[in-house]
Design brief:
Helix content is about 35%, strand content about 25%. The chain is α+β, with helices and mostly antiparallel strands. The strands form four sheets. The chain has a nine-stranded mixed beta sheet with strand order 1-2-6-7-10-13-14-15-17. It has a three-stranded antiparallel beta sheet with strand order 3-5-4, with helices on one face. Strands 8-9-16 form a three-stranded antiparallel beta sheet, with no helix packed on it. Helix 4 packs parallel to helix 8 and helix 7 runs antiparallel to helix 8. The longest helix has 22 residues. The N and C termini lie far apart (about 65 Å). The structure holds adenosine-5'-diphosphate (ADP) and magnesium ion. The site of magnesium ion has 6 residues, from helix 8.
Length: about 350
């Protein structure tokens, strides 16, 4: 009798130790500056460090291919040869371009990576941002048209139909990088990981204790990273586009980095922040940028009709809206008291 009790206690202690060990696993954390932003990773499991290193290497590779600041990269080569010829590109750039064109069509041109010339004119992400001349904007607008992106899958090459046209993959490349990170984590046998690429969050599985990841939705008017709410997710991506990420102010006007391809000016919809929750980060990246431009009314209906995609939208008059699929996973909690959650429309 005594012996049985002893064995039972031992077994219980062992079980508790095992559960605790799994639940309180320490993650390996990493912070790195890549793709023009801070990339943070929190990865659990035996190969965590190796996986993190592989992800950092991969993101560097993708940055070199897709940023217009690297002259040897695919994006720069495509721009340089615009109107002249197709250029051979990496398979990953091809995938990103295909997605870009797909989402341009789906969003009626709100998403359009051929805004490259306009992005350059404004220089919002540079040290010398400025309000361009109206005529310059109108001239550059003529060069914006996603239908002029030519993709030849057979030869893995791409180009732009007319001279001086220019692509900028800043609105989609980080999303692709996030998907690549998850692919690599899995390759290294990781089952629980979190990566944040400057506002693009992607999570693999749940936290090791079995609870969902809790992702804060930033208060777009707080300078110290306060949240307006939390969304609980597993195996998902949470991507936000906002007018607060990169901008400059002149004569009291805020000029931000998301360009309305119809006007050539920073988009002026009723939104100041647009968050997309989805399974694939490259999709969420394209969709957060485009819904931000499309505005609340259009975006809510649009996202409600997309399978497996949800959204959280914040308007200029500080109202917060969430699509119906987030009823159980989004919790509004605004410390500032300035925002209002509009539950049912
Ligand atoms: P962030 O880079 O801050 O996460 P986004 O994903 O919304 O934000 O991307 C904004 C970037 O996308 C801009 O800096 C620019 O490079 C590019 N861009 C701007 N307007 C558009 C647009 N209408 N369609 C596609 N890309 C855009
Ligand atoms: Mg984007």
């Amino acid at each position: 009798m005594y012996k049985t009790l002893k064995v039972a206690i031992l077994v219980i202690i062992l079980i508790i130790a095992l559960v605790a060990c799994k639940g309180w696993q320490k993650p390996v954390e990493s912070e790195n500056f890549l793709m023009g932003t801070i990339i943070s990773q929190r990865v659990y499991g035996k190969n965590a460090q190796k996986a993190i290193d592989a992800v950092n290497r991969r993101i560097l590779e993708l940055e070199e291919l897709m940023t217009v600041n690297r002259s040897a990269g695919d994006a720069s080569k495509i721009n340089e040869m615009s109107g002249k010829s197709l250029v051979p590109i990496d398979q990953s750039t091809l995938q990103v371009l295909k997605k870009a064109v797909y989402f341009s069509r789906l969003t009626g041109g709100a998403f359009d990576v051929t805004v490259g010339k306009i992005v350059q004119l404004w220089g919002i992400s540079t040290d010398n941002p400025n309000v361009p001349d109206k005529q310059e904007i109108l001239d550059s607008l003529k060069l914006v048209n996603y239908e002029d992106i030519i993709i030849d899958e057979y030869s893995c090459s791409a180009g732009l139909r007319y001279e001086n046209q220019s692509i900028d993959l800043g609105g989609i490349a980080k999303g692709y990088a996030g998907d690549e990170a998850i692919r690599l984590y899995k390759e290294y046998g990781i089952t629980s990981a979190y990566i944040n690429l400057g506002g693009n969050v992607v999570v693999l599985g749940k936290k090791p204790d079995g609870s969902p990841w809790r992702i804060g939705i930033q208060n777009p008017r707080s300078s110290n990273g306060k949240y307006i709410g939390i969304v609980e997710v597993a195996d998902k991506t949470v991507v936000t586009s906002g007018d607060y990420e990169r901008f400059f102010e002149k004569d009291g006007v805020r000029y931000h980095h998301i360009i309305d391809p119809k006007t050539g000016y920073p988009s002026n919809s009723d939104l100041i922040s647009s968050t997309i929750i989805a399974d694939v980060s490259v999709d969420a990246d394209a969709l957060s940028t485009s819904t931000f431009i499309m505005g609340l009314e259009k975006s809510i209906d649009f996202v409600e009709n997309l399978e497996g995609v949800e959204g959280i939208f914040i308007t200029k008059d500080k109202k917060v809206y969430a699509t119906s699929g987030l009823r159980d996973s989004f919790r509004f909690s605004d410390e500032s008291g300035e925002f209002e959650y509009v539950e049912k429309r």
